[in-house]
Each structure stands twice: as C-alpha cells, then as structure tokens.
Amino acid sequence: MEFNCYDVLEVQGSRYIITEKIKYNEIIPKADQEQAYKAKPSMQKSPGDYWHEYGLEAVEGTDKIWVTIEYNDNEWCTVSRTSYRKRAPKGFTLHQIGLEKVVAVDGDSGASVGDRAGYKEYQLPCEGGASVFFEENWFKGEKMFAEGSRVQLVNIKLCNDAAANAVRKKKRNQRLKERLEGFAMAIGCGALFLMCLVSWDSDLTWHGIRGTFGFPYTAKEHMHDTSVYYTKTDSDNEYTSSLDPVSTALELIDSLNGDIKNEGESLAEGHEVIVFYDAKSAYIITNVDGQTRVKVCEPGKLTPEEQELINSTIRKTHVLDSYAYMVRQRDSSGREKFLNIHNLNEADKAYMFNR
C-alpha cells in the first residue's frame, strides 16, 4: 500500500492529510560510526528492503503523526508521534536495528536524498498489536525519538469524498503559494545584491560577476572566444596568434584584468620571448619563424626546456607589470598614456605599440 503527498487518510477514525513522504532503503553499515547498528540477522532487515514514512497533519486540530509502511507487509503499519523521551520506556525490548538511507523525498520535509541514520526499534507486545519506541541517530548530527503502536492497515483508509478533495486542493494551493513567495523572495534578494554591486562600483559584466564568486574568466576561454586572433594547435595548451608577441602579451593581460606577476621579456627582433604568470598558470609567448606561439599551462607541468627558456629570459623591465597595474586600475586612457609615463626609447615604442 502506497500513498501520495496531499492524500487525505482516515487513521483510526480521524482524518489527516499527508504533507511529506520519505522513502528509505536498508543499507549495509560500512563506516566506523555505522558499525554500532549491526546485529544478528533476526533483528535486521535485508539490504535493499525499503519502506515509506508519511508525515501527516490533522485536518482539524494540530495533531501530527507518522505512518510507516513496509513494502512487504500487507497487514500492519506503525503509527507514531514525536517523543520527548530519550530512551525506551520500561518493559520495552529491542526488536530491530539497522541503517537507513533516504532515497526519495516529496512534500515539506527536513530530510534530503542521501541522508543516513542508524535506527533502533523497541517493542512492548500488547493486546491487538504492540507499542513501539523509535530512536534515530542521523549522521548529520541530530537524534530523533518517536513512540506509538502497530496498527492494522485496515484501519488506514484513503478518503476521496468532496470534503477530502477540498482539503487536498487547499493544501496543494498553499504549498504552491509558498513556493512562489520563496521564488519572489529569491528574485528580490538577487535584485538587492545587484544593486549593492552597482553601489560598490563593481564590474557588472558576466566575467566580473564570475570573478566575484571565485570563478574568474580564464585566458584559455578568452583565446577560444577570440578565435579571430588565436588558433588552437594539436596540443591542449598551445595556440598560435595572428598578433605579434608584444601585442599578444598586452591583449592577454587585458583579458586577465591585469592579474599577472613575475613578468620577464627578451625582445631581440625575430626571437622574442615574453613570460608571465597568473594565480594558476604560466604563459610563454615566443616568436618561432615569424609565427607567434602561446603556451599556457600549470607551472608544475612545464618541460625542462621551457623552464630553461624562462630562466634565460632575465630582462625584467617591469614594463608589462606597469601595464598590468594600469589595467587593474581600470585606466581607460589606453596604451598611449602608458607610453608617455615610461621612459622608453623611440625604437622600443615603435616596436611595441605601432604595429
């Protein structure tokens, strides 16, 4: 027997509506903290056994109950309420022990798929069934207790009359309204956050917002997006550029918002080498037979030859560092101002910026 959220049930003569439905699977204890829930086979379910737990609220009044139905029991279920006892009452004996995992959730529930708990069920046989006491130790840090009784399933009835349908519709609409209000609240918080970003004079581009949350735009993404300049080679980390080495370096620094360090360059015409780093990658820009090549990789993955090339590129004028600083300051006056504030000779100026 299985029910759905917002079904109206008659339980022992009183009407309740299901507000949450949780499906559990029995699993095998593995972690150290789970070993306490191993027991002899007669006191344990079999791995893969499942059952449903329904949270119900009274149609009239404030009573809340739980109905637990096992997939292979067509005669009995358990009806219980949250208990403030921390241990089983006198006379109860341990009936079952095991480890449960949440595999499905519907409705308004504090449970999530993947939650795990060790459980113990104590019983006290009595006329017409048994009294029960449950202890659940959720490994996310919470303990729960419940007590109730075993009840024959014939005492659980699904109600489909006009009154039940009206209650079902009202509860479903109430949940939809709460979801819409939550969605509206999320939109409002998002709008407020964007207003804060504006007031902080932040970069509101998609790349800037990504950077705010720790996912900055990468140079590899930039080279992919500007394929008019860059062509990927057979290697995952190597590209060719249609720009000269210096223009390529400046263009990449722009794409990285100026966040570079440890720059160095050797600008012998026809054999240019420019290197710099960002937080995660090394960049090597070279002129090979008149073709600008760009290598981007983690520093630890550089080949010995590439590391030697970097070490031999010892001329560090800090020109690129200075340009990167201007980019970080969002100086929009362009590269012409950059030229004017540095004492470069005319040959260097012509070489670096008049291409």
TrEMBL record:
Top-rank lineage group of the source organism: Bacteria
State what protein this is by name: DUF4178 domain-containing protein
Taxonomic lineage of this organism? Bacteria, Bacillati, Bacillota, Negativicutes, Veillonellales
